[in-house]
Amino acid sequence: MNHRMKKLFGGIVLCVFVSACANQSRQQSLYEALGQYEGINNITHQLILNIAKDERVKHRYKGVNMSKFKKGMSDYVCAVVEGPCTYGGDNMKLVHAGYNYTNTEFNAIVDDLILAMEQCGIPVPTQNRLLAKLAPTYKDVVYH
Amino acid sequence: MHGKNTPVILVMALVFALQATVAAAVTETDLASDSKIKRSRLLATGGATSIEGAAGGGIVPMAVISGYGAQEEQSAVAFASHVDTGDYQLDVIGGSWSWRNRLELSIAQQKLSHDSLTAALSLPTDSISQRIVAAKVRVAGDLIYTTMPQISIAVQHKKNLDFLVPGAVGAKKDSGTDLNITATKLILGGFFNRNLLLNANLRYTNANQTGLVGFGGDKNTSKEWLPEISAGVLLNRHWLVGSEYRQKPNNLSFIKEDDWHTAFVGWFPNKRIALVAAYVDLGEVATFKNQTGWYLSLQVSF
Q: What's the average model confidence in pLDDT over B157-184?
């Protein structure tokens, strides 16, 4: 690498770091980006509509009190994204224990959630930030 | 030269024809239909098909299992790829079947056209074909849902079907088996809140130009571990941009072999189709220097 190339490369690296930091401080909280509790509740509502049409998972919700599920889900997401909510339900492992939910079903729900976010007009960066918060629950949800 | 563009035009025509038959908002359409969705992994997580038939990018395989089958499902893909670097053209067709996001079995038929080399050396043939049969197993992790990357081990058995020219330039064998150990991770929001794809493969090989110029040579016959890496960013669910690097062996004293680079754009309009276009830099290939050009690959999933 010659001197000029090194300078150019250094410049690019510096740019990336400076803009990354600037991006961090300017970044809206995820709770705000999702449209606060109302926005989260709209996504949950759309998610339930999608699940109800999804042959892969809809049978799992037979007999489930959907208004209770909706509040629980919205409160959970609100708490996970550090919004001003307290999630009063059981932890994810306990909620899903004994049902032997599968990898296919988990993917189906994520599919339905992404579609719900698209339908609610949530921008891609915000979608990704929420998915990053929810993805680690996988180990608590499937095959228990 | 005119005839060489025909495969590209055919692939493009096929893509537009297919796109017209498949609605863009596939998930909404799928949910509205009465039939159960049979392939549940998320869009783009099956990757495209690399030139050796394995799920991956263009020249570097990934640890992902082909298609969109989750752990209770199966899937299949068919693909066609074309590379043109001016002095060489490579055409590949093939397919794979995957089971429970665990096992991937693939087959690929490669045909390298080398008109320039034939003219320069007055060779009796103008192409070399190779068949690759491969198996990949996911041994640990999940691309998205575990902290650990998805890790796969694969074997690729390659049989050179036109060994005359490879044998004449010093290649020792007409067949060989590559071993791949691959790790792939999708970091959600990992690059300015866009999803970041990181991939590394270690290949144990003695294949010259992937095996198209045979296996082993006068300089070196034994296999060696060579690194291959790729990285990309998903701009949204449908568009992946990235780059690949593949280190190559250098077994023949008569013809030098360079490392390969690509810069690619992948388009995943739905779970049926993936289209990849890339700029490739293959360096010196069998006496012809600066082999740069274009790569186009179409994958259809079932």
A: 97
What six digits make up the tokens of A8? 């150019």
Contact residues on chain B for A50, CB-CB shorter than 8 A: 31
Q: Closest Cα to residue B153, out of B193, B184, B123?
A: B184
In a domain, A64, yes or no: yes
Contacts of A128 in chain B (CB under 8 A): 188-189, 193-195
State the pLDDT confidence band at B10, using cuts at 50, 70 and 90.
low
Residue B156, beta-bridge partner list: B134, B178
Residue A136: give its domain's CATH number. 1.10.490.10
Q: Name the residue type at position A79.
A: A
The per-residue pLDDT of chain B, averaged, comes to 92
Determine the structural domain holding residue B95 and report its residue range: 6-301
Q: Which pLDDT value is given to residue B29?
A: 76
How far B140 CA sits from the closest chain A CA (Å)? Answer: 14
The torsion region of residue B100 among left (phi > 0), alpha (psi -120 to 50) and beta comes to: left
Cross-chain residue pair A102–B71, CB shorter than 8 Å? yes
Give the minimum alpha-carbon distance from A116 to chain B in angstroms, rounded to a whole number: 10
Query: pLDDT class for B24, splitting at 50, 70, 90?
Result: very low
| Contacts of residue B273, Cβ cutoff 8 Å, sequence gap at least 6 | B15, B18, B19, B22, B298, B299, B300, B301
Task: Name the pLDDT band for A77 (thresholds 50, 70, 90).
Answer: very high
CB B26, CB B270: distance < 8 Å: yes
Q: Flag whether A61 is in a domain.
A: yes
